Each structure stands twice: as structure tokens, then as C-alpha cells.
């Protein structure tokens, strides 16, 4: 059985098996750095120095902000300890 694989610059991988056997992928490693701003549920359009991530339920996304006021009240809730 001959297996050939290729990893392309855009991190896409291609593999082929010459005799038609089935291959099951048990682990995939993607090289390179992972950036929070590249995640689909993170809106970093207002990213500036000093920004933090805050979850916005209305859009179901995390947004970057320097303003912690929610509906006119300034607060941060971190749970009960």
C-alpha cells in the first residue's frame, strides 16, 4: 500500500492511498499560531490597547471593548466564591 500526503501553505492537507484502503485520521495537528481574533465567534473590530473580551448575548459573540457598562450600569460579575 502506498500513501502520499501533502501539506499546503494555507494549512490544507491532501492524502491519497494507492490500493483503495480506508484511512481513519486519529489526530490532526495544525501548525502555526492560533489567534483569538480569527475565531468566528469573536468580534475584534474595535480592538485597541487595553481591550478585554466580553460576551454579548444578543449576538452570541465575544466582543473586544474598553467599556464595561451594560445597559447603563458599570459592573463586572465574576461569580460567587
Secondary-structure blueprint:
Layout: E1 3-7, E2 13-17, E3 42-43, E4 52-56, E5 61-65, E6 69-70, E7 73-74
Parallel strand pairs: 3-5
Antiparallel strand pairs: 1-2, 4-5, 6-7
How would you explain this protein's 3D organization?
There is one protein chain. This protein has strands spanning 3-7, 13-17, 42-43, 52-56, 61-65, 69-70, 73-74. Strands 3-5-4 form a three-stranded mixed β-sheet, with no helix packed on it. It has a two-stranded antiparallel sheet with strand order 1-2. A two-stranded antiparallel sheet has the order 6-7. By secondary structure, it is an all-beta fold. The protein has one domain. The mean pLDDT is 75.
Principal-axis shape: elongated
Q: Estimate the mean pLDDT confidence.
A: 75
Count of distinct structural domains: 1
**Rg computed from alpha carbons, rounded to a whole number of angstroms:** 21 Å
With strands numbered from the N-terminus, the spatial order across the biggest sheet is 3-5-4
Strand content: 25-35%
Question: Count the helices. How many?
Answer: 0
Cα distance, first to last residue?
A: 58 Å
Order of helices and strands: EEEEEEE
Main sheet properties: 3 strands, mixed
Multimeric state: single chain
